[in-house]
Amino acid sequence: MKHPSIDKLALYAGGELSWWTQWTLRRHIGGCGQCQHEVALFQEASAEAFEEAGQMPAGVQWERLAAEMRANVRLGLEASDAISAYAAPLDAPPVRGMSWRTAAVATCLLMLLSVGYWLGAVRKSEQLAAARGPEAVVLEASERAVGLSDGNKGMELQGPRRNQGAAIVTVSTEGSAGAQYVDEETGQITVNHVYVE
Amino acid sequence: MLTVHMSDPARQTTGNPGYEEAERQNRFIQEHMRRVFLIIYRIVGNVADAQDLTQEAFIKVLQRSEQLKDPEKAAHWLSRIASNTAIDFLRRHGRVNFTEIDSLVDPLLAEPERNPEQELLRRERAERLEDGLRHLTAKERTALLLRDVEDIPAEEVARQMNCSMATVRSHIANARIKFRRYLERRKA
Fold first, then answer.
1. pLDDT digits (tens, 9 = 90+) for B16-43
2. Contact, A149 vs A138, CB < 8 A?
3. Which residues from chain A sit within 8 angstroms of residue B101, using beta carbons?
4. Rounded CA gap, A165 and B12, in Å?
5. Which of A50-54, A107-111, A160-164, B125-129 is modeled with the greatest confidence?
6. A69, A94, A129, B175: least surrounded by Cβ within 10 Å?
7. Which positions 123-182 of B are in contact with A (Cβ < 8 Å)?
8. pLDDT higher than 60, residue B111
9. Distance from C-alpha of A86 to C-alpha of B93, rounded to nearest angstrom
10. pTM of the model
11. Helix, strand or coil for residue B137?
12. Which residues on B lie below 8 Å from A74 (Cβ)?
């Protein structure tokens, strides 16, 4: 019968082998008294190490030693903090992010200012327009015609041709103009009247 | 060995902004100090070195206090730091300087013990363990202590020792064989 190696038995005792190897060895060890004994010795040795290793070394007064170590650990941490603080630049102002509340208030204020400015601009524009009033109607007369204009729209009343007599032009303050003239050849009287609306 | 006695942070008032953090650190130290000291002591085999390395391991962990929010992870991390700190120490110093058991006993400072027979038995077993561990390499000793004493799974031992599973299995197997043979020789 071929026995497993001593290394494998040592690992079998602690269950560190792969599932398949562990299963194969279990089958062998189940029927092999010699290997069972080897495994039992490994397990006893591990149990002794486990039991004894948890004991404090003889002569060590643990409470006193622990208090000393705790104090030294605290001292080490304090020293570490002090060194970190010293290493940090002293004159650099701390960089702090804006909190969400501050950001929200700032946004609201900015929106209020923008709306107020826009409303003010619109009102000022309306006041200027009101101050200017409607465009005035202008009467223009030339050698051949007379016209009315309000800046955007206009009209013109043509005068008589050369062989026609002089025209009588009338202008009303209500926005109308008229012209009367007599044709010298035919004696026909022409009356034109236009209104501004 | 540096020894400084400071005021107890637990006496500080709750108005101190660092009070809660100091309390959390104190609880963490209280819970794990004995375990960590013993792991390191079993690896380096010397009380004075174990004391310094235990302090060093706690300072390393507590400097990143955010790690303490998850106590389980923090405990694993502490074990890893402790074993690595001890292994690094051995690497730097080249060999293990085991304390002689007799040199530790101070009749004025030692705790009141059981009856002389019990004490003799206990010292004999302690000596057997110390001597047995001395026959292992630092990595074998660390692997054996983490696996068999701390009961840490082999995969986690491999992570803590920064090596592969195959290497850790090899360390564990060698350590068990050597330790067992030592015990057999001693009993014979």
1. 657 777 888 888 999 999 999 999 998 8
2. yes
3. 57-59
4. 121
5. A107-111
6. A94
7. 123, 125-126, 128-130, 132, 144-145, 147-149, 151, 154, 169-170, 172-174, 176-177, 179-180
8. no
9. 32
10. 0.59
11. coil
12. 6, 9
Using DSSP, state whether B95 is helix, strand or coil. Answer: coil
Per-residue H/E/C for B103-125:
HHCCCCCCCCCCCHHHHHHHHHH
Cα nearest neighbour of B50 on chain A: A69
Residues of chain B in contact with residue A51, where contact means CB-CB under 8 angstroms, are: 125
pLDDT confidence band for A64 (50 / 70 / 90): very high
Rounded CA-CA distance B47/B41 in Å is 6
Q: Is A148 helix (H, G, I), strand (E, B) or coil?
A: strand
Closest CA to B41 of A100, A58, A162: A58
User: Could you count the other beta carbons within 10 Å of the beta carbon of residue B168?
Assistant: 24
Work out the minimum CA distance from B94 to partner chain A, whole angstroms.
23
What gap in Å lies between CA A107 and CA A10, rounded to an integer?
72
